[in-house]
Design goal:
The protein has 153 residues and is an alpha+beta fold. The chain has one domain: Thiol Ester Dehydrase, Chain A. The protein is 31% helix and 35% strand. The chain contains six helices and six strands; from the N terminus they run ααββααββαββα. It has helices at residues 3-12, 14-17, 52-57, 62-71, 102-112, 147-152; strands at 21-26, 32-37, 75-86, 94-99, 118-127, 133-145. A six-stranded antiparallel sheet has the order 1-2-4-5-6-3.
């Protein structure tokens, strides 16, 4: 799928749309993406800051999608696990950036070349407009070369 189309679809995706999450950028090569969460009356918690679950939700699909788009159809890719460390209250607009490197992809390909599963950790940081850290998120992505791809290799 083209990155511009995916961005448009994600911005209409109900869990993002009604949580205040906006996908601001997805590069054509699926190596970089950025999302933002805008504070609204309907997405604040009891003390007026962003819900922790919404902060996590804004990070949820990106690494899996980026890996899938870069590895292609011969690989099975799933989100496996996540860890969130809330550092400071999130107020106003917060943003998060996602990066997929050549090293990440080389490591994944090497680890799955023999058909074994591999679980790769990615990290990202949610920051406020002043650049202050709001939360650290780690996502583990499960990757395995599909059976038919192993048979033809």
């Amino acid at each position: 799928m083209r990155a511009k189309r995916l961005k448009r679809l994600l911005n209409w995706y109900v869990p993002f749309r009604f949580a205040g999450v906006r996908v601001e950028q997805i590069d054509d090569d699926y190596r970089y993406a950025r999302a933002a969460l805008h504070a609204r009356w309907y997405n604040r918690n009891y003390v007026g800051t962003h819900f922790g679950g919404t902060l996590y939700a804004m990070t949820d699909p990106f690494f899996m999608i980026m890996v899938m788009e870069n590895l292609g159809k011969d690989y099975l890719v799933w989100d496996r696990r996540a860890e969130v460390e809330y550092v400071a209250p999130g107020r106003g607009k917060v943003t998060v950036e996602f990066r997929l490197t050549d090293d990440d992809l080389s490591q994944i390909r090497a680890a799955t070349a023999d058909g074994e599963k591999y679980e790769h950790w990615f990290g990202c940081e949610i920051r406020d407009p002043q650049g202050e850290l709001v939360a650290r998120v780690r996502k583990q992505v499960y990757v395995r070369l599909k059976q038919r791809a192993r048979a033809t290799a």
